[in-house]
Protein 1
Amino acid sequence: MAFPGTAPNGQPYSDKSKITAGLLQIFLGGLGIGRFYTGHTGMAIAQLLTCGGLGFWSLIDGILFLTSNDRTDKQGRVLRG
C-alpha cells in the first residue's frame, strides 16, 4: 500500500506507523519489539539483552517514537503517522 506524499527528507514515507512502533516500544520494549517492527534488528537485540535498559530505554524510546517526526525505518524512510 502506497502512502501519498514525501517526507521532509525527500523520500516517500515508510509503510510502518510511528504510533504502532511507539506503543509496541512502550508495552513490549523490554523485548525490543518496537525496534524489530521498524527493522532496526541490532538495536532490538540490544534492548532484548538489557530488558529494554531495565525499562528506561524502552519507555523513553517509545515516547520519542510517538512525539518525534523524524524517526525512520530500516531503509531510512520517515515513519508515517
Protein 2
Amino acid sequence: MNYANTTRRVAVLALMAVLAACGKSAAEKRQEEAATLTSLGEKYVKEKVREPASAIFRNQVVGKGGATCGEFNAKDAFGAYIGYQRYISVARDLTLLAQDVSPAEFEQNWNQLCR
C-alpha cells in the first residue's frame, strides 16, 4: 500500500467518525459526557485510596460544573472494606473524600456541587 492510499484511508475514516458524531442526539451526547466525567471521577478517587483495585462505586451523578458526586467503598490496610463514603471530584487535585475533611465542610461542598 502506498502513502497516498494510506492517507486517503485515514482521511475517510476521520470523516466517517466526524459524521457519526454529528448524528448523535443531544441526549446521547450528554450521556457520553456524563460517562466520561464519572469515569474520571472514579479514576481520581482510586488515586486517593489504599487499594485502588478494590474500589466499588454507586449512586454517582454529575453535579454542577461537571463535578462527579457519589459513594465509594474500598479496602483499608487490613484488607477490610471501610464502608461506603461520599466523594466529590471536579479534577485530579480537586477530589474530596468525606473522610478527609470535617463532616460540616464536606456537607457544604456536597450541597454546592452535587445538588
Protein 3
Amino acid sequence: MQSDQYSYIPILMQFILAVGFVVGTIIISGKLGPKRTSEVKDKNFECGIESVGNARIPFSVKYFLVAILFVLFDVEVIFLYPWAVNFKDLGIEGMLKMVVFMALLLVGFFYIIKKRALDWE
C-alpha cells in the first residue's frame, strides 16, 4: 500500500470498533437482559404517574414549526464561532461575507416575525 493509504487505517479501526461495540451491546443485552415479563412490568408510566388516555394525541403544527425554527437559527448561530475565532485572519473579505450572512439571517428572522410564526396561541 502507498503511504497515504496507511492514513486511513485509524478511520477503519474506529469504524470497526464502533460497529463492534453496537453489535456487542445488542447481543449482550439480549443474553443478560430481563426475561420475565408481567402486566405490571410492561405497564407504561411517566414520572410515577399512571398514564391516562391515548398517547397518540395530535400536536399542533405550531409546536413543530417553533422547534424547527429554533434548530435552524441555532445552527446558523454556530457558524459565528469559527468566524469570531479567525476574525483577524479573515480580514475585510471575511467581514463582508459575515455581514451578508447576518443580513440573510436577519431577513429570515424578520420574515418569520412578520408571518407570526413565533406567536403562541
Protein 4
Amino acid sequence: MQLGTRWTAGDQPPAAVPQELHEQLTAVERDLPPGTPAPRWTLTWLEGRPVAELDTGVIVTVDRSGAVVVRHDDEDEFA
C-alpha cells in the first residue's frame, strides 16, 4: 500500500508524484480560471498506478497500456 499526498495547483509536485504525470498536471493547471483560489491535487494509487485528482474533478492517471490519461470524475473510465 502506498499513501497519497496533497499539494496546491501551481506548486511543484512532491517527489512522490511520478514524472510521467507532470506534463499533463501542468496542462490542466494552465486551464484553471485566473484569479480564483488554487485547488489542491490529491495523489493516490490504484492497482499500482498513480491517480492525481484535482479538487475540481479533473483526474490525471496512467492507463493499463502506460499512457497518461486526463478525464473528469463524472466520465466513465471504461467507456
